[in-house]
Amino acid sequence: MIGTVTLNPSLDYAAETGQWKAGEVNRTFSERITPGGKGINVSVMLGRLGVPNVAFGFVGGFTGNEISRLLRREGVNTSFVRVGGLSRINVKLHADRETQFNGSGPEIGEKELAALIRRIRTLPEGNVLVLAGSAPRSQIGGIYGRILQAVADRKYLVVADAEGKSLREALAHSPFLVKPNRAEIESYFHMRAQTREELFTLAEALRGEGAANVVVSLGGEGAIMAAQTGERLFCPAPAGRAEDTVGAGDSLVAGFLAAYCAGVDWRGCLAAGVAAGSASSFRAGLATREEVERLLSEG
What we know:
The chain is α/β, with parallel strands linked by helices. 38% of the residues lie in helices and 26% in strands.
């Protein structure tokens, strides 16, 4: 069983327009409403790949109700804490260029955080726990670190897909895997990586800060991995046109973990992750199992 934690879930409204013009009425020709948030995307993709999982997080208001309903329809098990206020709505406009408006979401207090930690601790000891995405609005500092400290005795294999301060907090708890993208790892170290070798150096530096394994997603280039065995692996992305990159990195995490749970070696895990991420980027919405397996078999 894998648990995912999404601290600030969303209801994502994606619309396609021929061309978006500021200050004018813009007509859409297609719309799609889906549950969003990095951990939620991981849960949905894991479910499609046949991996049992449960999604933890905070939801509030009618938007929270719809997030829960859509996840149930997807077959995802949920264990959400109800909070005051509304779960956020993210608007994604696909036109000549992709534009996003992300909501801020409800504010979380000590009571809500304690309730979430109690729910997370119901995940059986030693299982995989994925923390992904941004922290919610809160007067509480260091939520990632607070959660990981509170569940340290459960000996979870922690996977963190976060950036900045949240990534630093996760590294302090020796995660099994962290998965920044190129921009995030460069921002973390305040430097640009000009070559793949320099990216590997940054990935190894994250290992030096506490991560057992580091995967860096590179968009259309694929991904690299600095593994706990000392291996440095690269997997190129399959050829194809990216249609919607939202959720591609989360799909990579899900594909990697699905392969890991099946006993696949590191190279195979990375290949499965890249196939899942690419399959999701080649379509609107997250990929199906068949689309992922087709890309994996072609690789």
